[in-house]
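Hello,

Our lab assistant flagged a job as stuck in the queue for most of the afternoon. It eventually completed. Since we weren't sure the result was trustworthy after the delay, we are filing this so someone can double-check. Below is the sequence as submitted and the structure that was eventually returned. Let us know if re-running is recommended.
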Amino acid sequence: MKFANTKRSQEVRQFLVDGVKANQLDLAHAAMERFGLTRQAIHAHFAALVKDGFLASSGSTKARVYQLGVKRFHDGLFKLKGLEESEVYSRNFSEIFDGLPKEIANICHYGFTEMLNNAIDHSEGTEVYIHVERTPDFVLISIIDNGEGIFNHITRLLKLHDPRESILELSKGKLTTDPSRHTGQGIFFSSRAFDEFFIFSGDLVFTHADGSGIDFLLHNEKSYQGTRVVMKIALNSERILRTVFDSFSGTEDEDYAFNKTVVPVKLALYEGGQLISRSQAKRILNRVDRFKTVLLDFKGVESIGQAFADEVFRVFIKQNPQITIHSINESLEVKKMIKAAQSNCG
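-- returned structure --
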């Protein structure tokens, strides 16, 4: 997003917007001095910014007052060493979020600080680029670091066989490579709080589609160094962050703990493969013992093998009676295999 098409106009309008943010006195005169322009030319730039929605004005010509408009954007490149996410949010980006509906602002604050904290603590990079823009319709947040890359990072530290497995682990939640400082909830809840959520790293893409409520693994023709997180939410969204938390939390007796998860089984399917083996089942069930209730989402899975079904719906359930396993969105063939496995539980 830019203020103008020419470099000169962009510089002038950036100066004016920055002056409005800082409540600078006699801004028009300062701009005239800085750029050697007439008052008429400066007011033409003010008018263009108002017309495009970057500024709003009130009062008569001589006493006109400018405020930030409905369209706002800001970006910056920051050194990761010693960076604090809350300070970056309040010092550099808070004006982008000022005036948003309360629940939208809460979601933006949560996603911004959680994803920036991930870059600070886990990326092993040196820099992070942040871009935030707001239009009359939506807020878009991008956080891009130059580190190892989230999927490679998880694969290495958890000793997984394939970076694609890291996306399956991310989708479950409670995944952290530093349990002494993190709970592993940030990506899980951020991906469900925003309307659109993407993580790009290498040639892999993790996305949570709000409309379908499931996670996706995609391959990207372009390979990204480091990690790029993109989050978007409509300003008229009715989403409430507390409701997202509550959807996966326990009761008062359980201290409202994060004890429920949804596992998108399709993420274990690579390049048209089939879910037939016990090793695939164990991959699906990895770390689910951290939850009390597990929903296995079979959307997009046409069939499963006997060994896979037996490992999940007989062996695991028998060995872990404290965990409740539910299957959802099953095809007829999947239902048949599940029932067959359950019939042998006695």
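-- support follow-up --
The delay was a queue issue, not a problem with the job. The result is valid. The chain has a mean pLDDT of 89. Residues 247 and 260 are 8 Å apart (CA to CA).
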